[in-house]
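Bump. Still looking for Arginase structure tokens.
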Amino acid sequence: MSLFTRFAGVLTDTLVDRLVVHSQKWNLIRVFGDHEVETDQKLLDMPQETAKETIGVVGFPFSKGQPRNGAEQGPSVLRKAGIVSNLQSLGINVVDHGDVDIDLVPRDEPMKNVRNPRSVAAANKKLSDTVVKLVKMKQSVLVLGGDHSMAIGSIHGHAQAEPNLVVVWVDAHADINTPLTSSTGNIHGMPLSFLVKELEEFVPKTPGFEWCKPCISVRDLVYIGLRDVDPAERLIIEKFGIFAYSMQEVDRYGIREVVERALYQIDPSGVRPIHLSFDVDAMDPTLTPATGTPVPGGLSLRESFYLAEEIANTGRLSVLDIAEVNPLLSTEEKKELTANNTVDVVTKFYGCRRQGNAPPDYVLPRP
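Sorry for the wait, here they are.
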């Protein structure tokens, strides 16, 4: 496949490609406005990550990363909404591994203002161990949360099995406060600070987290859907040059170009496994009202579908987190709305297409 053929499908009027000969090897340079990213031909020649044949589902019934009860019921709500059967209807082999067995740490005293540090750390250590095991079994892992502190365990475990991963963080919030910048002490607003290597010197030793070594770089991370970012988080994003697309950029460029830019910036070669961490509050609260920190002006259902479909089209989705479904914060009707919309988006990540899917074993009948 030629380089032009490989990338022609993702060109837009505002994206310009040019090839240059450099030191007897080809390099691809893509220009996003005045921002260039250069890719060595050796990366382009790497084997591409291929879609895994089995989805391994694991529940993470945990809510101690924030103060409200209910997020621990997220896995059961999503299962009752048919998340497993909907995926199976696509002809996918789905194995439900049940829930991570979580034991809360008694007398879990705060570390300064950080709440429940030992409980969060212990639960995420178990999740990390589970995810690394499933990824090594060549399963695509779907983690049903649980509050967004779950990303500590899921990304850490994923990185132990596939250290070349990239992270797409779809969320209204940046979740990159450190224990020293957080105004609430809730770890669901800090998970990335425990994972990003460049922030290690800014994160104090936290009880229970001795096992959690930073495992991703800021260059491996991109945000989509931001619209409620704390001042310190904004400083971190700008200081380290983290790729970030708020809803302002979604409105300006459209979801198509945002997704294209985001994927290209973290992985110009298009070969690395993807970890997608999806907080349901990324979507507009009219679509997912049963969540703890809703913010108006979020992704529409169509924008969420498109993002998920494009991730599916890469064939490289390795781990998907679903975070912050909280049925106790809404009416029964709104709980069902949240669960059903979330399930619909999840199926798009795994190949359910709006133009329809032909069953893999379907044979057209003859008269």
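Confidence is low (pLDDT under 50) at residues 1-49.

Edit: fixed formatting.
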